Amino acid sequence: MKHDASSTQIEDVVSTIHEMGYEARPIPGRQRTAVGLIGNDGKVDAGRIEALEGVLNVIHVTQPYKQVSREWREEGTVVTLGNGTRIGGREIAVMAGPCAVESEEQIIGIAHRLRAAGATVLRGGAFKPRTSPYSFQGMGEIGLKLLARAREETGMAIVTEAVDPEGLEMVAEYTDVIQIGARNMQNYSLLRRAGRSGRAILLKRGMSATVKELLLAAEYLLAEGNPNVILCERGVRSFDTHTRNLLDLTAIPVVHALSHLPIIADPSHGTGIRAKVIPMARAAVAAGADGLMIEVHPQPDRALSDGAQSLYPEQFEDLMGQIEQIAHAIDRGIVPSLVLESGARVGPA
Ligand code: PEP
Ligand code: MN
């Protein structure tokens, strides 16, 4: 309370807390009185208390999220995909692929190459959330079908984005992991649908979202009964124009301390520049990321989106060798490559 708060104002706060269904405990001090709220189940509307006369400040001593927190679940969550890829365990999972699915030749060709290099999850957007309405918006359901074919041929699991609640079910039919993009991190109707989809979710951090907001967005998914959530640091807005975004690697240990959910890094969107992707991918593994998401295109200069940040396949192959060594140095490994007998087809999960 403010130092000159009257006893009526203090009583007002106490009775409001009671009305809200919690216990209130005034703690008189030399300068001011503090009022403790006991029994916060994460649903307290601080705004209601802040607005009362005589209140100086509402200080949270418990987190506003519950099911995503480490306090709720001490042991780290491991998300297991249909092809056996585990995200959140000792081994680091690598997801790679083009920004967008552009043609059968492009996606099937690159999938074979990425699998051979050791990636076990294939990324590729069929629905693209583009900043400009005139940019390529993705191939839609045809793109999803091509991803499913790539999975059949290579055994890789698929991650692809759902951009709106209406389209989510269709994406869920084809994919192993539904990606919720940075622009949609706080699209609550999309999050609710995703929480009920029965698929694992890759939730990307919004470009101006705090870690707390990211965890609260994830709480929506868990609150709908979906425990298979993977978080993704993909860079935040900054004042410096040298990179597209500022990849916040600190978010990795911060999330690991606050939450049991796995967190991966996307240095492609995180930097926006091909030459910066490899060093930041290495750094992300060193920082403790549970996985990487890397954009790779067979011909980046011809890509319909994000060509400037897409690696050439050879660069990706080099990177795989490097992160393996870094993983070793911190007592981790890389999720083992998918081994296929030649000509064998691996069915979808
Ligand atoms: C993407 O993964 O291609 C993408 C659009 O990412 P973000 O939502 O992080 O911008
Ligand atoms: Mn992209």
Describe the protein's architecture and organization:
34% of the residues lie in helices and 16% in strands. The chain has 349 residues and is an alpha/beta fold. It folds into 2 domains: 44 residues, no CATH class; 256 residues, TIM Barrel, CATH 3.20.20. The strands form 3 sheets. Strands 5, 6, 7, 8, 9, 10, 11, 12 and 13 form a 9-stranded parallel β-sheet that branches. A two-stranded antiparallel sheet has the order 1-2. Strands 3-4 form a two-stranded antiparallel ribbon. A hairpin with a 5-residue loop joins strand 3 and strand 4. Helix 3 runs parallel beside helix 4. The mean pLDDT is 95. Bound molecules: phosphoenolpyruvate and manganese (II) ion. Manganese (II) ion binds next to loops.
Shape: elongated
User: What's the β-strand tally?
Assistant: 13
CATH class of the largest domain: Alpha Beta
Provide the gyration radius in Å: 23 Å
The averaged pLDDT comes out at 95
Q: Could you please say which CATH topology of the largest domain applies here?
A: TIM Barrel
- Note the quaternary state here: single chain
Summarize the main sheet: 9 strands, parallel
Quick summary of this structure?
By secondary structure, this protein is α/β, with parallel strands linked by helices. The protein has helices at residues 7-19, 46-50, 104-117, 141-154, 165-174, 188-195, 211-223, 251-258, 267-271, 274-286, 313-329, and strands spanning 23-28, 33-38, 79-80, 86-87, 91-97, 121-123, 157-161, 177-180, 200-204, 229-233, 263-265, 291-295, 333-334.
